[in-house]
Amino acid sequence: MSDGNGGANYSYTYTPVATGTINKLALTVTAATDTKTYDGTTSSAATPTSGALGAGDTATFTQAFTTRDFGIGNKTLTPAGW
Question: What is the value of pTM for the model shown?
């Protein structure tokens, strides 16, 4: 249906009718077990795992040993990402 003048005799104003909130998605990133020979760095070749990302989201996760020192006992791995 047409009014014959392309709507030129109408004016309109958009009025928001609702407000909303977007909440952060809780995400747990867990370091993966890794073993390496001493090389003077904290680098780790393993990739941490994460919970489900939101639809359309992508992420890059890395991890590193918290110390470069060798020794007896387990060393802590710390995951990071963006």
Answer: 0.68
